[in-house]
Amino acid sequence: MSDLEHSVAQPLIRISPSQGWLQLDLRELWQHRELLYFFVWRDIKVRYKQTAIGAAWAVLQPFLTMVVFSLFFGVLARIPSQGLPYPIFYYSALMPWMYFASSLQNATNTVVEQQRVITKVYFPRLILPLAAVVSGLLDFAIGFVVFLGMMIYYRIVPTWAILLLPVFLLVAVLTALGVGMWLSALNAIYRDVRYVVPFLVQFWMFASPVAYPSSLVPEHWRWLYGLNPMAGVIEGFRWALTGQGQPPKLLLIASAGAVLLMTVGGMVYFHRVEATIADVV
Amino acid sequence: MSRVVIHAEGLGKRYRIGQGGRYLTLRDILASSLRAPWGLYRSSTPNSPDHQPRQHIWALKDVSFCIHEGEVVGIIGRNGAGKTTLLKILARVTRPTEGYAEVWGRVGTLLEVGTGFHPELTGRENTYLSGAILGMSKKEIDRKFEEIVAFAEVQDFIDTPLKYYSTGMQMRLAFAIAAHLEPDILLVDEVLAVGDFEFQRKCLSRMGDVAKGGRTILFVSHQMNQIRRLCKRVFWIDHGQIRAEGPAGEVISAYEASQLDLADENKSGCFLDWEISEGGNTIRDNFQDFSFGFSVRLREQVYQGHFGVCIVNESDAIIVGWGFDNLDIPAGVHKLTVKVPLLPIRPGVYTIVCTLFNRGNNLIGGQVVDRWYAVPSLVVDTTPLAHPQDRWAGLLNIPADLEVSPAPAVRPTLSGKL
Fold this sequence. Notes:
The complex is a heterodimer of chains A (281) and B (418). With 281 residues, chain A is mostly helical. The relative contact order of chain A is 0.14. Chain A is built from 12 helices and 1 strand; from the N terminus they run H-E-H-H-H-H-H-H-H-H-H-H-H. In chain A, 71% of the residues lie in helices and 1% in strands. Chain B is built from 10 helices and 18 strands. The longest helix of chain B has 16 residues, at 197-212. Chain B is globular and about 85 Å long. Chains A and B meet through strand 1, helix 3, helix 6 and helix 12 of A and helix 1, helix 3, strand 4 and helix 4 of B.
């Protein structure tokens, strides 16, 4: 039983003032995968227990926003929608966007919210923003089911492009995680970061093709626009789900590069702050 | 001798004074960068020296030791001596500022009861969550689940959300989970000071069994009896350093002797100890008169002083407080006894905070002789008499009877007319 396991694997833990900057212990993270599962499971359980309408929230939020956007940006402002019905045009963008926005906020707050646990027991702290980002996926999945219904209603037949959807989703997850790691570490040190995040999210939305197509951005600025990984994600979602327009190749390459930098940078910074997190929260 | 499982060499931990008192904010950083633009980077990193000289305090300094497999080591010392800091370093909750430690084996930490509990989740869900946070695998929890529930005696409520549990039930469940942890090395901080007495005994005996099973335990406690019963070897930590180390009996005697004749050099006096009239820290009857005795050692006499005592609950609310003015106490060791005819507060764990002032009170410029968050905590282990659900029970524990009687069908009105 467990006795045997212990005598076979005797890990040596070395505790010293600082561990190297780049010495990310991914193996340790893997060993704690069950804890990640339990944190995700708790987040989801608690969220659905605390809201009166439970899972309906995951549907209502993007759906009502889609209705408002279709009405104001679409019917009234007549923003071009690549020939798509406005509800499809907006909902396909709102799914990844709302996932990103809420995951980012949850990831930012998680370290401070879990300070009691952090000051009492050790586990790789990276699990906290990771759990925040993963647990948002359930809301996304529920919202996606609604979208399938909308596709049937509007008789949109998906093309092979839909197989690439997981890739775009992964970029969204990594973006939320990358930025979330930065912000949650900063939030542990500077407590007013959490008040900045809603503004950041709002600005970021206008810098992403949620309410308009990225074709409105001049061609020669497109690569710069792509440095916002959510631009690539959202265009990618629209294209993969509806088959309309061009695959966002250039945009996606720029986005993938940007997201890689953010994630690696976020990991390094988070890892660096991790050492002092229990002393500052 | 068996092999070494913990080896510490020159461990030290430095804290900034006032750390945790107030959080840094971006606003501060922006404001100071406007005053001194080039200082921005320096002051924005958590560890960099600020432009003002900072005061530091070494919570732990130059601590070295070896612990062998299967040893049960007690750690004793005054409040703030560095015991918890040492455990937190070994638990990897915080990093040492200098020195290093090597640990061979899986470490389990018990710095708090009910780590990770969430009030919205059921007892079952919390058992899995807290167990996982404390380092158990899902398989391990599956295997021990029935045992944990039986140990906690909460079978009937296991699928009820934790927020409907009484404090006692929550604590029993938390202990039961903790008692079933089976790491190679277990670090335990003071947690057994709370909880009802019978249950404490149950946990202690289980911990004893665990120790016999070859596991190593480091155990912080203020209750010398517990330490004597469980530990063969004891570290006495004082001002961040190991002041004595050796067989439990010897070190505890030395510690207790020092408590009597050596107070903190910087203060004009200090509280040493407290207990209730029957001894111990547990009240078993809300309605019996009893007394709290606080022993205090004074280096200089108190003249026209003030003694304040209050009982504080888990959410830091003062349940009741008393103040005594115009005290004249000569130097030496004295016992201040507060007599109370009844204390109808609900079962649970409370902190007693007491403060002694010299030459005045808190309002008219008295000097603080000592302020003490009394250790151990006050445990009220009585039958709950108020509402069965915690959230409606309130702060007091007072019985009530309900009488239902037939009433006249028609209420007579004042005018006598119908």
